[in-house]
């Protein structure tokens, strides 16, 4: 990887700190001029990023450009795409892996000497195409000869959030007669509620786990297999697997078909691999899955531009850093004005917070500045009737990224009181952006809006598979570029290990207790509180387990 230095040692850092003492005041009459709104737009990958409502001017943007240049953010992004070991902490035990999720969508320019990762992605895409063609033609059918109509996706975290968000976003493009359901939580009620109404004889189950060892997923797979057996069905004729090569789940004998994802693809970056592909291919058809990949690929290419005014991901990354490190804002709300994107923020929470919720540099030293913000959000306009009070008048300034579309997905809209629903949605989106930025003076303090609440509008024509691919890649690339500027490792997730280790230790004690002849079935201590001390959970643990 190119040179990496802590952000606060870069010359532009001090300059930006100075500028942040007097950020642009958007509430001054005329500050948000039509010319500003017209020029502060960055196009790329099918999206337009409107950032006139951020507290930046050309001088700040120039310094942010310098910060990006001095950190070598785009060079690091290019090195990542070309196979550098970007997932590592120097001099310490770490994952030490390449980061090649972009290779899963780098399929659109065939070259004679294709990189290994792209060739592997292409092979899996071809295997999936063949499998889906067999389903379509009826060569592969349920044991009673019927077609498969439903698919239950079992996976958690990166093997659930992105794929689920994209499925929900693109239901308008679903193949008729095909539905997908999701089980993630180890809560037995999640599996029970999903499985109960299904005709299992016409259902496929797609078990997704890169490690092939995740407690929740393996447990839910067993619950699902038991349900199939109880219905007199052979799980081997219904169950699919997506897993890492050589993982404990990588056993084709247990599955109707098994697909691979690879070490160099992190869970939260895996939607465009077979992790999302098998389920999305079933639901939307292969052409739409390829459109998703194409949209992501176009956005990936746009992230290679060194100029932030012409690179949507770099622009979002640097505006985020301005708000986080220089204006001191703790959180980021992502508010899509699209019902179809109602789980997208949940995916982005993981993508951003698991990637950039870090406090050491890639050299293992404590970082001397803030890293990833708290990301949250909800679909608009629903959110307007819930938490917007705080973002307009609360004591915390919440930067916002709005996402909106000019057209609806289904094309079934109605003009009521001279406007369509889509126009109402877009009008609300634009109004919120302006109200947050400009505010409103008022003699009555309760009706005063302070303004200067920074926000960005991400606009596209319509939420299609290609646009969805673009949005996915936009955020993945934004997060990676921020990590490069902050000099942190955005690709590991050590912070989720400790809780898992302690839960496993407690489960060992639950299991041991069950074998004790004097065990009362948990009558006296159903939650296992008494075991916390026995299991050694009340003192700082020293156990170290390798990451799956
Ligand atoms: C994502 C994380 C994590 C992971 C899940 C599921 O980047 O690594 O959310 O995706 O823990 O892991 P498996 O796919 O291995 O079951």
């Amino acid at each position: 990887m190119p040179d990496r230095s802590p952000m606060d040692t870069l010359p532009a850092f001090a300059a930006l700190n100075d500028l942040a003492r007097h950020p642009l005041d958007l509430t001054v009459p005329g500050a948000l001029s039509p010319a500003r709104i017209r020029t502060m737009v960055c196009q790329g990958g099918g999206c337009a990023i409107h950032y006139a409502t951020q507290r930046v001017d050309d001088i700040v943007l120039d310094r942010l450009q310098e910060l990006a240049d001095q950190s070598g953010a785009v060079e690091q992004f290019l090195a990542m795409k070309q196979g550098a070991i970007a997932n590592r902490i120097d001099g310490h035990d770490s994952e030490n892996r390449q980061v090649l999720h972009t290779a899963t969508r780098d399929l659109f320019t065939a070259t004679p000497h294709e990189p290994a990762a792209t060739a592997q992605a292409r092979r899996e895409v071809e295997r999936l195409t063949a499998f889906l063609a067999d389903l379509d033609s009826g060569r592969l059918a349920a044991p009673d000869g019927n077609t498969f109509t439903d698919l239950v996706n079992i996976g958690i975290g990166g093997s659930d959030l992105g794929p689920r968000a994209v499925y929900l976003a693109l239901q308008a493009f679903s193949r008729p007669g095909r539905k997908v359901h999701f089980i993630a939580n180890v809560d037995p009620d999640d599996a029970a509620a999903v499985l109960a109404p299904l005709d299992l004889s016409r259902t496929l189950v797609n078990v997704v786990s890169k490690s092939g060892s995740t407690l929740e997923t393996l447990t839910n797979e067993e619950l699902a297999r038991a349900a199939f057996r109880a219905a007199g069905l052979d799980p081997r004729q219904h169950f699919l697997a997506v897993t890492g090569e050589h993982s404990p789940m990588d056993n084709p004998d247990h599955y109707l078909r098994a697909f691979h994802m690879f070490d160099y693809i992190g869970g939260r970056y895996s939607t465009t691999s077979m992790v999302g592909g098998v389920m999305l291919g079933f639901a939307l058809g292969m052409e739409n899955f390829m459109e998703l990949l194409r949209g992501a690929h176009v956005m990936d290419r746009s992230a290679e531009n060194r100029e932030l005014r012409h690179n949507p991901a770099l622009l979002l990354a640097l505006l985020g850093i301005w708000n986080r490190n220089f204006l001191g804002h703790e959180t980021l709300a992502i508010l899509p004005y699209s019902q179809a994107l109602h789980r997208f923020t949940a995916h982005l929470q993981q993508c951003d917070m698991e990637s950039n919720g870090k406090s050491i540099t890639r050299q293992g030293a404590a970082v001397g500045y803030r890293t990833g913000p708290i990301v949250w959000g909800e679909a608009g306009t629903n959110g307007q009737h819930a938490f917007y009070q705080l973002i307009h008048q609360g004591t915390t300034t919440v930067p916002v990224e709005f996402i909106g579309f000019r057209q609806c997905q289904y094309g079934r809209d109605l003009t009521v009181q001279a406007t369509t629903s889509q126009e109402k949605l877009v009008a609300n989106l634009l109004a919120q952006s302006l109200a947050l930025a400009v505010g409103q003076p008022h003699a009555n303090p309760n009706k005063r809006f302070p303004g200067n609440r920074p926000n960005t509008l991400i606009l596209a024509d319509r939420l299609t598979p290609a646009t969805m691919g673009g949005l996915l890649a936009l955020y993945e690339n934004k997060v990676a570029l921020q990590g490069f500027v902050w000099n942190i490792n955005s690709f590991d997730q050590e912070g989720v290990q400790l809780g898992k280790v302690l839960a496993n230790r407690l489960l060992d004690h639950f299991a041991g207790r069950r074998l004790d002849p004097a065990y009362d079935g948990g009558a006296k201590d159903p939650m296992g509180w008494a075991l916390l001390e026995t299991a050694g959970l009340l003192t700082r643990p020293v156990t170290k387990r390798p990451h799956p």
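The chain is about 40% helix and 10% strand. The pocket of glucose-6-phosphate is lined by residues 156-159, 209-211, 214, 217, 266-268, 354, 493, 548 (CB under 6 Å).
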